[in-house]
Design goal:
Layout: H1 4-15, E1 31-39, E2 43-49, E3 52-57, E4 60-65, E5 70-76, E6 86-92, E7 95-100, E8 104-109, E9 117-123, H2 124-127, E10 130-137, E11 140-146, E12 148-151, E13 157-158, E14 165-171, E15 174-179, E16 182-185, E17 191-194, E18 197-200, E19 211-216, E20 220-226, E21 232-239, E22 242-248, E23 251-256, E24 259-266, E25 269-277, E26 281-286, E27 291-296, E28 299-304, E29 315-321, E30 328-331, E31 335-340, E32 343-348, E33 354-356, E34 369-372, E35 375-379, E36 395-399, E37 402-406, E38 414-420, E39 423-428, E40 431-437, E41 453-460, E42 465-470, E43 476-481, E44 485-493, H3 495-500
Antiparallel strand pairs: 1-44, 2-3, 3-4, 4-5, 6-7, 7-8, 8-9, 10-11, 11-12, 12-13, 14-15, 15-16, 16-17, 18-19, 19-20, 20-21, 22-23, 23-24, 24-25, 26-27, 27-28, 28-29, 30-31, 31-32, 32-33, 34-35, 35-36, 36-37, 38-39, 39-40, 40-41, 42-43, 43-44
Amino acid sequence: MRPVWLLIAALLSGCFDNTYVKEDRTDRRPKVLKVTSHVGGTHECVLVRDRIWYVGFGPQLLVIEGRGVREARAEPAGELGRTGPVCDLALWRGDLVGVVRRDGVLRWDLAVPRQPMLVDRVPASALGIRPHGLSVVGNELFIWGEGGVVRGSDGKRFLPSAALAGPVVATSQGVVAVVGRRLERIEDGRFVGAATDIVPLPASAGLEGGFAFMLQGPGGATVGLMGPDLRERSAEVMKGTFNRIRLRGDRLWILGDTEMASWALRQGRMEDPVFARVKGIRDVAPLSDNLHAAVGSFGRALYRLKEDREGPGDEFLSPQREPGRLDRSIFDGRRVLAGSAEGFWFYPIRGKATLSDKSVDLTQMPETRATLAWGTASVAKGDGKADTPDEMREVLIDGPMGKARWSPPNQGWVSTVVAVDGDLWVGHSEGITVLRKGPSPEVEEGTPAALALDEVGSVRIPGPIIWLHPLRTGGGVAFVSRFGGMGVAELVPDDAAARLAPSS
């Protein structure tokens, strides 16, 4: 009897194609980092004109009609993953002006209110500052942010040494701006008062030339009224952290992550207080005397201030929810469950997010250490001293070929690191960056070896990025951002670069 192995060999010899030649099937096309799927984010600001809502939602301007349910239009302010969020809006000379945080200022013509037409874009490089907000003073527009204040009509820059300037108002002592907790005259930087936010009062408030102000402290905020001389006339103390004050109609609003409050302004006093427990509110705008548009990390809704014939007061109506604030997350390889006290969401990879009745008590801890073939990366712990805030400001890499360090842009902080297909993916306060080992540099004999890093790509997402979950298929991650929603970021072929590459 023939040995079994001879029979198998005979069968195989007739089945396999001996002419097969191995090929290198590695995809060597140039690749770029892109956000290929995205859900959620934060509604940053709202402005209402003739019952039409204009809302800054991520890198786009939403146009919403009536009671906030019907979205009529979405105008992109830039490419997702390459552009900051639309964070402030103002009407100036009949047009709508919006700030794209740190990127620039846009101007839309509202001749057709439901179809804003972009007519001007001024980048941060032309402004000379990284913009954060707008103030209209008389007939003049002021743009403020990192690096000072810029006057819109002629581009003149003020307070160039300010790390971050805030709202601008005209006072009896000149035009002043918020700088930290100080009010400084923009012409010469002279200190004239204290506030972290300020708005001018209308004539109906009964305090001619006066202002409403907020002074945020470590454990609470003082909100009140100032006279034209910037001296406090009346004030209330609120516990917690608040994002901004708004003057809408004849009412003053203070808005925070867990609460908002409102007062009627009469005869130079704050009266008729209303306090509402609401999570994640960022802005309000009146639709009528009693009905307001409200937006934030929770999404958007109507807010009825007081009881009327339609229903009780202090009530939110027609909520349109979004996965905005995400503090906790777990991942099973196919779905992300993430959320906060504002609600929890299921996100199937590249799918649609849905509200869930499940919650996350124990979250997966973000990875702060990753091991690659070319080194071990860890998030810097700093020196532990309160007067040197250097914790989580760098990624430190130690490998057989040397050491390296990397810091995120804009003096941001690092939240997590993971290894994906031999690359280091870094989540930080500005978005996501992918690092790869570069060619070894030449060093003089006797000097320590240095590890070269190449930045393969980066995307901007309103952060911070809290979790990066490597995809099972490789080439990318599912990300979870505290205020920028959830999605997928991948290294994908750069078709434009491939078309420009010389043929071999």
